[in-house]
Amino acid sequence: MKFFLDTADTDKIRDLYSTGLVDGVTTNPSLIAKSGKDFFETLREISSFVDGPISAEVTSTSLDGMIKEGEKLSKIGKNIVIKLPLTEDGLKASNFFYTKKISTNVTLCFSPAQALIAAKSHATYISPFVGRLDDIGENGMDLIKKIKTIYDNYPELQTKILVASIRNLDHVIESAIIGADVVTIPPNVLEMLYDHPLTKKGLEAFLNDWKSTNQSIL
Ligand code: G3P
């Protein structure tokens, strides 16, 4: 399973990229606004050190506008993935970029039907938002299970499942159990993956015992 980082914070991406855990990056207009930085500069900076796919979202809602914006964004680097909203024009844009061999990430997916039609429009990735479904009392991971079943039933559907709106470790682990292709993880959740109270406690005990020996490795 691939891990993407769901952030536009370039310092965080640099820092966590060095763990070797990060296979790509996803951004969205809200994350760009939160970073307070220029959209194009941010994408250029990320693509200067991240080899894997980097999702950059269009902000136009018309087909013509999405195509123009997507074409401009795709010039930033070969690994830029054009993120499109799951609307009728977004699906048309997905199909258009497929014919141009430009990768796409169809976002804001909340139902199996939406995931099915995104795959039929040749989206490279579909982004179902699990956390936002949980927020309204639904079960986000049930959606991932359904999409996985549908895509497995029809091998001609080549779209990869990119689980988004991840809020906790269960979302990551459940995605791995179901067999999702990618999880896009906010930095705080990625950090939770290696933080364990028993690891912390065990390390403290080892270091205290080591100190009592009055030895030094260096
Ligand atoms: O990038 C899209 C998605 O991951 C957003 O997550 O936390 O805003 O629901 P969230």
How do the strands of the widest beta sheet line up side by side? 1-2-3-4-5-6-7-8
Task: Tell me the major beta sheet.
Answer: 8 strands, parallel, barrel
Structure ligands: SN-glycerol-3-phosphate
Per the principal axes of the C-alpha atoms, what is the gross shape? Answer: globular
Q: Please, how many helices? A: 11
Strand content: 15-25%
End-to-end separation: 38 Å
Mean pLDDT: 97
Any idea what the radius of gyration is?
20 Å
Q: Which structural class best describes the helix and strand composition? A: alpha/beta
Count of DSSP strands: 8
Helix content: 40-55%
SSE run: EHEHHEHEHEHEHHEHEHH
Account of the 3D structure:
- With 218 residues, the protein is an alpha/beta fold.
- 52% of the residues lie in helices and 17% in strands.
- It contains eleven helices and eight strands.
- Strands 1-2-3-4-5-6-7-8 form an eight-stranded parallel barrel, surrounded by seven helices.
- Helix 1 links the parallel strand 1 and strand 2.
- The longest helix has 16 residues.
- The two termini are 38 Å apart.
- The model has no long low-confidence stretch (mean pLDDT 97).
- The structure holds SN-glycerol-3-phosphate.
Break the fold down into its secondary structure elements and pairings.
Elements: E1 2-6, H1 10-17, E2 24-26, H2 29-35, H3 39-49, E3 54-57, H4 63-74, E4 80-85, H5 88-99, E5 104-109, H6 112-120, E6 125-128, H7 130-135, H8 140-153, E7 160-163, H9 169-178, E8 182-185, H10 187-194, H11 197-212
Parallel strand pairs: 1-2, 1-8, 2-3, 3-4, 4-5, 5-6, 6-7, 7-8
Bound molecules: SN-glycerol-3-phosphate.
